[in-house]
Amino acid sequence: MMHMTFYWGTSATILFDGWRTSAWPGYLLSLLALFLAAAFYQYLEAFRIRVKLLAGAKAEPLPPPAGSDAARAPLLAPAAALAGGRWPARVATAALFGVNAGIGYLLMLAIMSFNGGVFIAVVLGLAAGYLAFRSSDGEDLVVVDNPCACA
Length: 151
What we know:
The protein has 151 residues and is mainly α. The protein has a domain at 37-61 and 69-141. 60% of the residues lie in helices and 3% in strands. The protein has helices at residues 24-58, 69-72, 76-83, 87-111, 116-133, and strands at residues 12-13, 20-21. A hairpin with a 6-residue loop joins strand 1 and strand 2.
């Protein structure tokens, strides 16, 4: 039976029929796996941001002459520089984005099991991953596109 409201207990089906828990050891191992997957999500997000920043830093053009239209639109310069030909960096960034989006959606679907422990494990994993991988470098101020609201 699929639950449609949050419930507490060791009996949970997570993501697919083969991942069922019914006793404490399996349930706790599942919560640990979800915690680590959520922390890994934050690690990949931080890594993707670094790759994107490095690709943008390598591709920055020379400053435009004073009074030109490009000087009035500084946010467009890095995107225009990347369009010119940093394909390996763009492909790597796109691949990391895809993997990270997939993990984010799987974490969301795991939470949709409506098990309270699963919800807490994923949220704590995201918070611990953010603390470990993203909170100290100031890169969280960079606006990046993110398909999932769980980051």
